[in-house]
Design brief:
- The protein is of the alpha/beta class and about 230 residues long.
- The chain is about 35% helix and about 25% strand.
- Helix 3 crosses helix 4, helix 3 runs parallel beside helix 5 and helix 5 runs parallel beside helix 6.
- The longest helix has 18 residues.
- The chain is globular, with a radius of gyration of 17 Å.
- The chain starts with 6 loop residues before the first strand and ends with a strand.
- About 40% of the residues are buried.
- Bound molecules: adenosine-5'-diphosphate and magnesium ion.
- Adenosine-5'-diphosphate (ADP) binds next to strand 2 and helix 1.
Length: about 230
């Protein structure tokens, strides 16, 4: 039997209107995201990567086109009603890490499990295990501002994967890191993909990320270039 895509987007466009000016950020994009993909959406700045990733991540609504999650057509669902999908099924990694500054490393990683109402004992085991996996067992009690950029991105990777989401979206995850640190962070995600089967979708114009992709899509001016 043919495998269903985790996410299917078909002829998706996103326009922004400013008075009479209409900006086409993404135009007629069709894309299937399959289980265990390590998919990179590449393209120069302004090509629509973040816009497309936000639509895939149910953080933004397309202006036109259709979206399926696990075969369920969610094209006409509003973003609010998809909150449970975002909380339980999608992990997010951002260029600027977006950690909560007043929480410790441990608490940042625990937070998505609290939202998901995972019981305290299970939370402890999951957080400990995940922090060990990303090599931050010794940094549990630190605050984000006491960590290096690479360590912060490791925390956000742990926060994204701790809830075992069906898919992890990473918007230029290496852009704020030097190339060595970026390489280590990338290697960590590749390992999670290989050993745990975590599905990743990246936006990036980092050649090291592009080189690692299992599948590559190039965007130019909001459309996929063949
Ligand atoms: P990338 O992530 O590849 O740099 P973006 O998706 O951020 O590209 O942007 C694509 C285009 O859409 C750009 O022209 C950008 O200026 C425009 N754009 C993105 N977000 C917004 C927004 N919230 N409001 C207006 N225009 C936007
Ligand atoms: Mg962007």
């Amino acid at each position: 039997m043919e495998e269903l895509p985790l996410i299917r987007i078909k002829n998706v466009s996103r326009n922004y209107h400013f008075g009479i000016v209409n900006i086409r950020a993404v135009t007629e994009v069709t894309l299937d995201i399959m289980k265990k993909d390590f998919l990179v959406i590449a393209g120069p700045s302004g090509s629509g990567k973040t816009t497309l990733l936000n639509i895939i991540g149910l953080l933004d609504k397309q202006s036109s086109g259709e979206i399926w999650l696990d075969g369920e057509n969610v094209t006409h669902r509003n973003l609010h009603s998809l909150h449970g999908h975002r909380r339980d099924e999608i992990g997010y990694i951002f260029q600027t890490f977006n950690l909560i500054p007043v929480l410790s490393v441990y608490e940042n990683v625990e937070y998505p499990l609290i939202l998901k109402k995972v019981p305290r004992n299970e939370r402890r085991d999951l957080v400990e295990l995940t922090l060990a996996k990303v090599g931050l067992g010794h940094r549990k009690r630190h605050r984000p501002n006491e960590l290096s950029g690479g360590e912060r991105q490791r925390v956000s990777i742990a926060r994204a994967v701790v809830k075992s989401p069906r898919i992890v979206l990473a918007d230029e995850p290496t852009a704020n890191l030097d190339s060595n640190t970026g390489g280590e962070v990338l290697e960590l995600m590749a390992e999670l993909n290989r050993t745990q089967g975590v599905t990743f979708v990246f936006s990036s114009h980092d050649p090291a990320v592009i080189e690692r992709s299992s599948r590559l899509v190039r965007l130019k001016d909001g459309t996929i270039v063949p």
